[in-house]
Design a protein that fits this description.
- The chain is α/β, with parallel strands linked by helices.
- It has two domains: 156 residues, Beta Polymerase, domain 2; 121 residues, no CATH class.
- Helices cover 56% and strands 12% of the residues.
- The chain contains 15 helices and seven strands.
- Helix 7 runs parallel beside helix 8 and helix 9 packs parallel to helix 12.
- About 2% of the residues have low confidence.
Length: 340
């Protein structure tokens, strides 16, 4: 591109950069809100927004591949980084619904690599705001302005950042050995991305199978945080929300009590106890599990599990133990426990 024309483009951008900043904020907020509304459980590694730096634009315009007819579509930018590559498609669908997408300038970087090359992978969408948004008086200034949205995985983003910093924009060719190592690294990270997807799919399948089997009464699973959470939701659906204050402590107590499987725990729960839970409207799952152990064998619990630093007992629990005919006064005296 002619240097004079590049400076003309830069002068325009300097004058209008604040509009692109407003556009980046608008796109950022719209996309983030849409993701939270449509996929509240989808975990996002990070959202970010930016407007192009003047020096970066000048460097880009002076490259041979740009001409007077070239359109710069990334003056405003938003980036979404997901943990798993499989989540990119969900974000992409939201983008297509939330904005007008310029298909001509949008690109799937993975497809452009082809089957025989490695490198940065992600989807880039060039978007404008919908007409109903642009019709608002405060958004008139954003008509015809475009923003680039990049969606990529955390692993692919890591590779991109490292190579960008260490030579991605290096003018000319890297030494052969460095180029080879860069490509090997890209290949390794792509395999890691694929394995991450496979792991996430297997984990989700495990959770689904776990829920289905528990609904059928299959309780063979070893006690861990996941199986315990699913079991409590199945056994005590009356408790909402389902909250553990310290699930690690609860797991430690269950193991100290000698319980290894969900079946072991389930066998300690009586219909009378379930009725008591409903009646007393407890919310802490930790406390409910602790009460299951104490009611089943108070002597064992206070001998093998009880933490001496916990030297007080809630009166609500005290009354529950009396209801189940425990000699709780003697236990409190023996272990120096105060009723509060």
């Amino acid at each position: 591109m002619l240097e004079g024309y590049a400076e003309e483009k830069i002068a325009y951008y300097v004058k209008n950069r604040n509009f692109y900043e407003d556009l980046a904020i608008q796109v950022f907020n719209t996309l983030k809100a849409a993701v939270m509304q449509q996929h509240p459980d989808l975990k996002i590694a990070s959202y970010s927004k930016r407007t192009k730096e003047i020096d970066s634009l000048r460097t880009k315009l002076l490259k041979d591949k740009y001409s007077e007819n070239s359109e710069i579509t990334d003056l405003a930018g938003v980036r979404v980084i997901v943990y798993s590559r499989k989540d990119i498609s969900a974000i992409s669908e939201i983008i297509k619904k939330s904005f007008k997408v310029d298909l001509k300038h949008s690109v799937d970087k993975t497809e452009t690599l082809g089957s025989d090359r490695v490198g940065y992978r992600g989807e880039h969408y060039v978007v404008t705001l919908h007409d109903d948004v642009l019709s608002l008086a405060e958004n008139k200034k954003l008509i015809d302005l475009k923003c680039e949205i990049q969606v990529t995985s955390l692993i692919a983003h890591t590779w991109s950042e490292i190579t960008h910093e260490k030579g991605y924009k290096f003018e000319g060719s890297l030494p052969v050995e460095l180029e080879r190592r860069k490509n090997l690294l890209a290949g390794m990270l792509e395999l890691a991305d694929m394995e991450m997807d496979s792991y996430v799919e297997s984990f989700d399948r495990y959770v689904k199978e776990l829920e289905m089997e528990m609904e059928k009464g299959c309780l063979k699973y070893t006690i861990n945080s996941m199986t315990l959470e699913k079991f409590m939701a199945w056994k005590f659906p009356c408790i909402t929300p389902q909250v553990f204050r310290d699930i690690d402590l609860t797991l430690t107590e269950l193991h100290a009590f000698g319980l290894n499987t969900i079946k072991d725990l389930n066998e300690l729960i009586t219909p009378d106890f379930i009725h008591a839970v409903r009646k007393m409207t407890w919310r802490s799952l930790d406390g409910i599990i602790r009460n299951i152990l104490i009611i089943n064998d108070a002597e064992k619990y206070f001998k093998d599990v009880w933490n001496p630093d916990m030297n007080q007992m809630n009166r609500k629990n005290y009354e529950l133990y009396r209801q189940f005919h425990l000699d709780i006064d003697r236990i409190c005296k023996n272990y120096g426990i105060r009723i509060v």
